[in-house]
Design brief:
The complex is a heterodimer of chains A (233) and B (137).
Chain A: H1 3-12, H2 25-82, H3 86-159, H4 168-196, H5 199-207, H6 217-232
Helix pairs in contact in A: 1-3, 2-3
Chain B: H1 5-13, E1 18-22, E2 29-34, E3 42-46, E4 50-59, H2 68-79, E5 86-90, E6 93-101, H3 106-127
Antiparallel strand pairs in B: 1-2, 2-3, 3-4, 4-6, 5-6
Chain lengths: 233, 137
């Protein structure tokens, strides 16, 4: 049974007792061993890679050195032939042939290293992915266990030992009532503020014609009539 | 620098609208009550890899007979658009939760708790048609 399947079964049953292991200790030991194995394989692959890369660089230098040597000696051979030194030229040509075959051999080695390095890099990537997956699995087990442990502690908080939870609809209703109450209180406070700043008193005074009057259609007409009478009279 | 449990507890407790309580029975679990929402506390659990924030909504017993499957389908559908939180089930209790990376900042956590608290009220309201209405004192 895969670890996911085990965890799945464990979290499905509310029946899991406190302290009971979600995943049997054998499975966890195997998982830990797998993580250790993958870690050491990764370490080994990385060590291999570094030494392989050092070898590759050394061989590359060798190849370059031989190539330069061939070019240099080709110049010498031509110079010897130009001077009519046939036997010297032949000696140089033999040297060139020797260096070229050495170069070919080293080139073959270099290609081999390059190929191996590519392969090692792929192995490392795969191992790293594998290790990540194993660590995630291990973390899943831990999180599941922690959550289950916390769960029983949390459960006792809701209802003091009684395992049933408070009704969510009641709770929501209570919260909404409190929010409404708070909103009402804020509005009441705002009204009180308005009262004490006197705006309510002013509006009551103006209602009975004391203090500042609001301009109304009626008052405008009265005023116009009055001025019209003055002009005519 | 990862948040440490003790610092976290102190800083949350210093937040005026939060009431913070350390659970004694288990390690690294806090109960955070957001002002005026005592009924839906948020539990904050520190782990090696993550900070898990959970709010318990209701249990199986509160779901109306025959409504379980459609309610769960509604929850799954809501999971996608619900900001930062997701529905879950712990034992027989429905929860909403959000997980933060272990290296999250204190501000990230504050935001998570506030959003989770808002979401828990919204979630119960959204699921109310699936829940039993009778009063259970």
């Amino acid at each position: 049974m895969s670890l996911w399947t085990k965890l799945f079964k464990a979290v499905q049953g509310a029946a899991t007792e406190v302290g009971e292991d979600i995943v049997d200790s054998q499975a966890l030991r195997i998982l830990d061993q797998e993580i250790r194995d993958a870690s050491s394989a990764l370490q080994k692959a990385k060590t291999n890679l570094t030494s392989m890369m050092a070898e590759q660089r050394g061989t590359e230098r060798q190849v370059n050195r031989l190539r330069d040597g061939v070019r240099e000696h080709e110049g010498y051979a031509i110079a010897a032939m130009n001077k009519g030194e046939q036997s010297l030229a032949e000696e140089v040509a033999a040297k060139i042939a020797e260096m070229e075959s050495e170069q070919q051999q080293q080139q073959g080695l270099l290609d081999n290293y390059t190929q191996h390095i590519e392969q090692l890099r792929n192995n490392i990537r795969t191992t790293e992915r594998n290790l990540d997956a194993l660590r995630r699995k291990s973390q899943m087990v831990k999180t599941t266990e922690n959550v289950q442990k916390a769960q029983s502690a949390i459960a006792s908080r809701f209802s003091g030992g009684n395992s049933a939870m408070r009704s969510a609809t009641d709770s929501l209703e209570r919260i909404q009532k409190r929010q409404q109450l708070a909103a009402d209180q804020m509005q009441a406070a705002a009204e009180l503020e308005q009262d004490s700043s006197g705006s309510d008193l002013n509006s009551r005074l103006s209602a009975v014609g004391i203090g500042q009057q609001n301009t109304s259609t009626q008052s405008v007409l009265e005023r116009l009539k009055a001025s019209n009478r003055l002009e005519q009279g | 620098m990862n948040l440490q449990f003790e610092d976290l507890t102190i800083r949350l407790a210093e937040t005026p609208t939060f009431t913070v309580d350390v659970l004694e029975e288990v390690e690294n679990v806090l109960q955070v009550v957001v002002e005026n929402r005592e009924e839906f506390p948020v539990f904050v659990q520190l782990d090696d890899d993550q900070i898990l924030c959970t709010s318990y909504l209701f249990d199986h017993a509160q779901v109306q007979e025959g409504q379980l499957v459609s309610m769960q389908a509604a929850m799954l559908a809501m999971n996608v658009p619900m900001p930062l939180s997701a529905f879950g089930l712990i034992g027989d209790r429905y929860v909403i939760f959000g997980a933060l990376a272990r290296h999250a900042s204190f501000e990230d956590l504050m935001h998570e708790i506030e959003v989770l608290s808002d979401n828990s009220l919204e979630a119960v309201e959204a699921m109310i048609d699936y829940l039993k209405q009778e009063k259970t004192a």
